[in-house]
């Protein structure tokens, strides 16, 4: 069979990527059937002890302090993370753009500034930052998983990159995405499939899956992704990371490429991913402090609020009341998620907070409204982009070989939205009306919890799974039921890691009365041996534009969980 | 000819409106050919001297102080304004819902609260407030100019009304609008045409034209309208008032009825109209201080910022630099507008500020994009609402009798947007992409003025006409070229009165090289005798979500103009 033109293009581009890796950074990889690879960076011998010390520093604040005091130079920090990122790449295929020289030159420039002026270049001085393959960098291609976009070199930086540079950061790699961005996994024809470093049989999630795998390998101290239905939170949950999905237009998206461009009913947002909450906070604050509304006209003119961060509208954070959504009434979570929620409740109550039940409210209706909006172009956006090169539109994330047997023929979303067709602008307006009514109804439902909290306030945040399961085998992640709620309602939401699947504790539950065929399929998928060792994260759902409060509450939760784990010996 | 069903419904509803007026408030009206009626309230004898003193108090802060100290009771203030509003109604046909008993009962309730508790009910204690016919009040009809909506009684208050009640205000009348809301004049089949009290041959503008006429008659101390393309600013300019068009979602629209519902590309916003800036500020601040985001999920969680009101990002307001847009390159303003801009420049320079030229930037492109978005449903929204009752869709605001000769057969907007047709959701997304690019381009253009101001900042605000002319004869207002810019770019914008047309000063200009046929028609329309005595207002255009700064800058401008007029003896 002849290789088609688009396949040749992909092969050439993949080869060019390989050649962009310094030869001396090529490692002896473990065999493909070694599932967990998180220890390889420490064992492969490429990184020096000091480089391991640097890259194992998950607290971004601590890292920045060492950079600010020149205890560590930006050059050595960037080199260390670059080496580890390249190790991650060889094990999980998480990267797209690799530009070692450019990043190292930039790091030297920053070292020079600190040396000659005694001052840092900004609040992120010297910090290497990885970026999802949407954030255009002048002079580099922005391929975003489309063959036709190979060779599109950016004429200017996206606003985020402009601001990161002004803040003294070092953008150093870009990371992989799924074709179209609208999958909760990460695979495209140009750069291929990214796998989960905790278990390579599993997906790292998506669409910010490249960041998920890279950060889980500690190949970056801080990554930036995007989220329109869970794309920051799914990979964060699957890879044991912290993230923040900010509200629409709080952070500057201008100049980044995107899927469904011009779709503004449910806006994609950008946010940080990291191995610590300090990374999440520092990034969010630095970007807001740069007054991004002067560069991106859509960004909300709202300064970072210390008052909100001090939780002044949440009783000063002294006694918070959380509402746990154990089950959204659409798909029931796997046993490890239930255990994580029990840990959460025990840990937070031990810390003096309250935990009550959240009653799901019109969850499926909200989900259906969102998915119908996303499909309003009848798929034109994807078809047009694929059509430019002739590459086929990917129909499943399941690998041809090594596929797990349980893929759903027809996920619930297809049943809900129906066959693809073009909706008119007027029909879209009717979906907006419906969405507004749903948002008002959900807000009133939230406000009404004031009767049950005993704090004089409605619940301070909702706690729920981000996904009904830990990372699943490639091709099986169809659940965005827990995450899409926050995009539709525009709730500021974090994800934080809680525990790991433990086959000795997380026994299968007996069948329940299934809500639908997908709920049944998810129930059947659970196999404690298969999932053993995978990270388990939860979402903390705050109100719209409550980024500061959500960060502060997640810090409180994180601290309470750490104390609880230390006391109980659990992990 | 038989009267059709919808006409009978209109006649009955209009009769019911007439019957809702207390008989003793019916005045002897001046003859129809008396054009200016602003003096009638003082001369008709219905209002006592004290009632005239109350209703002539244009400073809302002063009015509230007297209410707070019980020097004036809410009952007498509400009665006074109600009587004057009913006079205004008889002269200009500005009202829709009249509910004297309900409002007076509410005012007594507030007086009782103050008397028994010694405390006011809220920051707007006892203040009567008029509302555009969109803001639903429980138990009242919300007709909004559609015959089919007669008999639709609201089951609950709109969020704005809920908040006004919590603030201690007295919603006391609702005011007229054009059918569809999408006209810059005010006429519908149910309640008929509203006329301009400065010259009844002229339109008060629209769509918030009922408020315009009512406030110009001082029949209300404070009104609330909405703006999607100029609907607050056009009537404010035509009626000599102050207003603020806030940015999208700064103030709570939830629960108000609307045209083109679900159209969210360019959101309609609500704002105050008043005879003083103190009214504009007090309303805006009271609503924001009520934390409306807890009731309306779309409202931006941004507290009132004293820092922004103190103009900390505008050099403390000490030396502002304004950019004057003398001409937007689409239609050239009439001579009185030019004189108003010269007055502005002289007054502000005399007060120590700087005034430079603003170069219009892609003005027509922006206008075309907006108008294409508004028409994306091919007119379905209007047709469906009219179809419910069988009333015809109004094609012109020109009266059949007493029409001025100069109506344009085809305003520029029709040439630009083309024949009505249904656009797809995908096409709408492409318009959004275009709009985003235009917003970025306009923002960068604004930022680039930093090179020309000499203040170290870009210009602090743009000053421009709100409309190319003062109020025009009914049927002739086709210009929203100056206002739509702000809706499209989401610039926070005020309108303030500057002067009145003076036929001895405002001589016709010689023909210029016309930009288009509408520019030519507008030029030819100018006739200094016809326009003599009409108010002339300007816009102050600030950045997105800069409501506090725009209010503060307008206060500075207003003060400078008052000092300038006092010194020069101009009015």
UniProtKB/TrEMBL annotation, chains A, B:
Annotated GO MF terms: hydrolase activity
Domain of life: Eukaryota
Domain called Amidase: residue spans: 76-550
Keyword Hydrolase tagged: yes
Sites where the protein binds substrate: 181, 207, 228-231
One Pfam family linked to the record: Amidase
Family: Belongs to the amidase family.
Name of the protein described by the UniProt record: General amidase
